[in-house]
Design goal:
elongated, Dihydrodipicolinate Reductase, domain 2, Alpha-Beta Plaits, homodimer, 10-stranded mixed β-sheet, Rossmann fold
Chain lengths: 436, 436
Amino acid sequence: MQQLSVGMVGLGTVGAGVARILTRHADRVARRAGRPIELKWAVVRDVKKRRDADFEGVRIVDDARRVIDDPEVGVVVEVIGGVDAARRIVLDALAAGKQVVTANKALLAEHGPEIFAAARKADRAVAFEASVAGGIPIVGAIGVGLAANQVQSLAAILNGTCNYILTQMTQGGVAYAEALADAQALGFAEADPTLDVDGTDTAHKLAILAQVAFGADVRTADIPREGIDRLEIADLNYARELGYTIKLLAHARLAEGGLELRVGPSLVRNDRPLAQVHGSYNAVRVEGDAVGETLFCGRGAGMMPTASAVVADLIDVATGRAAITARALDFWPAAAAPIAVLPASRTRRRNYLRFLIADRPGVIAAIAHALGDKGISIASVIQHEPTQEDENGEPGPVPLVIMTHLAVEQDLRDAVREIDRLDVVRAPSVCLGVEE
Amino acid sequence: MQQLSVGMVGLGTVGAGVARILTRHADRVARRAGRPIELKWAVVRDVKKRRDADFEGVRIVDDARRVIDDPEVGVVVEVIGGVDAARRIVLDALAAGKQVVTANKALLAEHGPEIFAAARKADRAVAFEASVAGGIPIVGAIGVGLAANQVQSLAAILNGTCNYILTQMTQGGVAYAEALADAQALGFAEADPTLDVDGTDTAHKLAILAQVAFGADVRTADIPREGIDRLEIADLNYARELGYTIKLLAHARLAEGGLELRVGPSLVRNDRPLAQVHGSYNAVRVEGDAVGETLFCGRGAGMMPTASAVVADLIDVATGRAAITARALDFWPAAAAPIAVLPASRTRRRNYLRFLIADRPGVIAAIAHALGDKGISIASVIQHEPTQEDENGEPGPVPLVIMTHLAVEQDLRDAVREIDRLDVVRAPSVCLGVEE
């Protein structure tokens, strides 16, 4: 078979990693792909910037058109990130008959239907293993490895920055702001970390996984999400006392009436493998109807882990597997059997609740009553003796922590609103999910 | 595309699971396979045995020849287990031009080269996802998902029976014999559990993984292995005190000079995900040169998890992906670039050592001296005050536990032989590996 020529658009960290593997391990790649894979073009913003030896022989240009118009190019790798320019390049590449490999989660989360419609029209594959969970081959695992299953649920740590920060907070006992600054200093967090810490990045990836695992066509904006930016160290400590660790989880579950989707800080029992996923690692727990529970962990970002996924996709394109998989799995299909996404209010979960209450008789009864009224049953309670006094020398307000059994979200919200109105409650309550 | 007709040989637990998925989820399977997959034949020992509704329309016979001679059959599923009959069926099926799906680890571990030579000759695929780690799609993960990587190391829990027993011993504090009896009563262990608990089953699977990940052609007998059948609860307790959990691990690592391979009970630090793999679950940690560390967990055996892998292979055969993968990965190739397997004596590992020593001055010094003489350095030590007295009212022998840094196996053996000769050492020492 003749060689596969690659045009890569974007030469940031991931692009440099891809070039490194294709250049330094050309033999290995050719062996597994059944033919050589050659990096022919790289499209960059600044063609004058010096490149290292991995780019010898690569034509470096600043116009993606050059690549797309080259009939020798069989596949376009999109690693520029962002949405608008990336969308244009992917659509143009498909229209020109190229296969496409992309690492762009925002692009697929926002424009999946348009891009896959274009791919079907052109009879080309769009491979996107690198767009979710970096080096973990999760798209292949769900779509191919677990193809005999109907996925029942997913729970995933999909943002390495957040997991790094949470690990620092949990293990080092440092507050959010300090852990974030530390992550920035070490390069684990961007200068502007908003999209990571507010849960948007995780929601992008969940939107893609919801398509891969459930065929659900969801936009990021439709996924209820909460970030880690308002997490208090107190809650990590109570979680530990209860035998749990707090992780930023993407959650999806086939429930009666539709699909539950959400992103938020959640308590995970310490003896569950997800709780032991530390630092910048990602992990995806997949429950299938035949296989039961499976877990896939690895680095979710970074130069070489993401390049590992991009090159795996290139090998899949070169062998012809990608074309078969694209046809068989038909992501974001034209005629989707629409799977209903449950409104957040109708989803069910266990909850961790923290209230700041006056140390007075009857307070716990009042709170328990408000929960009971909504049919929410209490699994466990922590209240320690008060250690602070208020300005009058009276015992200060004390935290009360309650873990509930499964509760419908709307009932919980109603109960908490009720509780927050009690005059013995001294601050808005904290409410986090608990992953089963 | 026309339907794919399946002839299944063997109708035990796994075969019944495969039939269940193919029958009850025929639509799902057809959608993902691009065409219907029909179970046409089942070959059993006793055709008169009653079968459930999943076998309506399936021709049940006791002669595999009927299946192999049927030109309509496109793929033969071998799930009878054992080695000799299975080998015959697989070779005959390939010679008749059928694709093959097998769940048979012993067969591949013993006859991989012969079977894949026959497959190449017939230009047919032998798919074997179900042969290692049951429902975990690990062959696909390493061969396809991580195809951009050179695997550097593997550490895996591959026997659910052993992991169940070890979990019972660790969490319940029960001795080996009791945990085994319990596992047998619950159906997690066979009446004759020898091949599970002595490490043979794990070694079969490691032999297959060594081929998939490193291209190493190894027979089970060549893998140094130790089982869990002589593990004492004392060592699980000391491990816990040191912050470790004991797991039966398959280990492979590309070292200088060749490939390290071994199977044995090993200490894993509690904060590593492998330590949190409980009960009958399996897990494979794969370290790749690009992706870094990844971990794949799930059920390693049982009716539906194993059937999940067999049906995934059938879907791969139906789509044509299996044929491509077989050609690209070329398992047990004719002209293997032989990778040297290091003799056990030259491998390196950290060690957990337990000695039973007289409570007398100079004993620890003598032991430390014997280790130091061989260049083995001590990482940590536990010795508690003696609690027993011997028949003369003197303090009884006390256990001394030492964790070493990395040591060459031969040096360690020499040092331990030296130590066991000391007259102050009261019992043969216990030596377990420590997984990094």
